[in-house]
Amino acid sequence: MTGNTSEYLRVLRRGLRGRDPLVRRTDRVEARLAVAVLVLLLVAIPLAGWVGARTWDTQSALAVQQTAERTLVTATTQAPAETTDVTAGELAMTASASAPATWTWRDEKRRGDVTVDYGTPAGADVQVWVDPNGEQALAPLSATSAKISAILVGVALWCAAALLAAAVFGYGRWRLDRTRRREWSREIAAFLGSTSSH
Fold first, then answer.
1. 3 state SS of 107
2. Apex CA 14: angle with CA 11 and CA 17, to 5°?
């Protein structure tokens, strides 16, 4: 098959026509395979949208739940964080470290390591998220993060379908090209044999 895109598409269109004597069986199979791949890519679009929407629903519900369950409290560092200079070329970068801290939860004193800037002294106030038991937790999922997750899941699903379709088409075309070469070899051998007999 030619590498020219427009001519290749023209050959595929001919392959979809039923009784063109210039089109070989392998060309018809390749044309049908190309249509099947195109259909797969088109079907994957609403499927990816549906999965993304379901992910958005799930993540949104999780964000609401975590926002309702988690509380922001003030913790007090009990020791200074180590100071470390972090630079990248001429740019200074803000780094973070951990320091032991305490916070109050329902008249109980809780302890844990909290994330602070390097150089934070002892006695500094730091905002931390805690779960319903007063234990340190991650910040609740935001609506923006839920939306980004849904979009990424949908795009990743469609990309996976595209890669699968490309792999199937590439493998199918490789097999068809092998069949074409065998047929050409037989036809050339038959032609040379017929001419040498005269």
1. coil
2. 155
